[in-house]
Structures are given as structure tokens and as C-alpha cells.
Write a structure and sequence with these properties.
The longest helix is centred in the N-terminal third of the chain and has 33 residues. The chain contains seven helices and two strands; from the N terminus they run αααααββαα. A hairpin with a 2-residue loop joins strand 1 and strand 2. Strands 1-2 form a two-stranded antiparallel ribbon. Helix 1 packs across helix 7. It has one domain. With about 160 residues, it is mainly alpha-helical.
Length: about 160
């Protein structure tokens, strides 16, 4: 005897937008994921390109986070990875793998709080962030954006 039941799924058609605000939200809902993906992609290409050409304002911060990697190798390679991730976001392919890699990269930026706390906290107080600390902490927003894109599904890649 089978305990599995077959259920019919009834598709629910949303009510048509009634007010100007409903119509606005409907349009924004359609374009927001793509706009978010493109914005993150542009940030990754831009920041990565600065590392590749040796003009990144966070070069010292990156080196302090990974001091065991040669400075001459670290920034160009990291920048190249960031440019590749940014281009993949702009193209929208491969969808899931790119978002997971971007998310992991962003989570990795928080290593600076462990590796170089003097550069991120004032007087060792984790409540008093330096400009570097604020720069890294804002990556929480980008991690949230990546999670939102993953949750939204592949439709944002089209």
C-alpha cells in the first residue's frame, strides 16, 4: 500500500494591479533581480580591474589579510578572479555556480577581521570600526543580495 498521495496543484493567478503603486511594484519586481545582478557584476569587474592594474586602494588591506601569499601574485590573481566573477554575473551564466562563488568570495573578505584586526577596529574595540572595517562590513549587504538572487531563481539570468 502506497502512502504517497498525488495532489493536483492549482495555479493561482494574481489579481491584476489596481493602483499606480501596484503597477509600479509589479514592474520593479520584474527588473530588480536583473538590476541587482548587473550592479554586483559591475562592482566586481571594477574592483577586480583595479587590483589587476595595481591601483587598488585596498591593496594593503588585502595583503594584511593574506600575508603568506606573495603581494606581486596576490592582487593580480585575486583581481582576475573578481573580474571573471563580475563578467559571469553580467552574462548571467553559469548561474548558480557564479552566485555561490561570489558568495564564498564575499564571506572570505571577513578574514580581515581575524587576520588584521588593527586595520578594522579602533583601539581593538569591535564596535568602533575603522574605514577599512566599514568597507568590509558592507559586504554583509552584498552577501544578502547574493542570497536573494539565489532564492529568486534562474529567472533573473534571462
Amino acid at each position: 500500500m502506497s502512502t504517497t498521495r498525488d495532489y493536483e496543484v492549482e495555479e493561482v493567478t494574481p489579481d491584476p494591479p489596481r493602483t499606480w503603486w501596484d503597477r509600479f511594484e509589479h514592474r520593479v519586481r520584474k527588473v530588480a533581480p536583473t538590476a541587482l545582478r548587473i550592479a554586483i557584476g559591475l562592482v566586481f569587474v571594477w574592483f577586480g580591474a583595479l587590483k589587476v592594474v595595481g591601483e587598488s586602494p585596498v591593496a594593503d588591506l588585502v595583503h594584511a589579510t593574506l600575508p603568506w601569499v606573495s603581494r606581486g601574485l596576490l592582487l593580480p590573481v585575486l583581481g582576475g578572479v573578481e573580474v571573471a566573477l563580475g563578467v559571469a554575473l553580467l552574462i548571467g551564466r553559469p548561474w548558480r555556480a557564479t552566485l555561490v562563488a561570489v558568495g564564498l568570495h564575499l564571506v572570505g573578505t571577513f578574514l580581515v577581521f581575524l587576520q588584521a584586526p588593527a586595520l578594522t577596529w579602533t583601539d581593538g574595540n569591535p564596535l568602533l570600526l575603522t574605514a577599512n572595517g566599514e568597507f568590509v562590513l558592507k559586504n554583509l549587504v552584498l552577501v544578502g543580495a547574493v542570497l536573494m538572487l539565489l532564492a529568486h531563481g534562474r529567472t533573473t539570468a534571462r
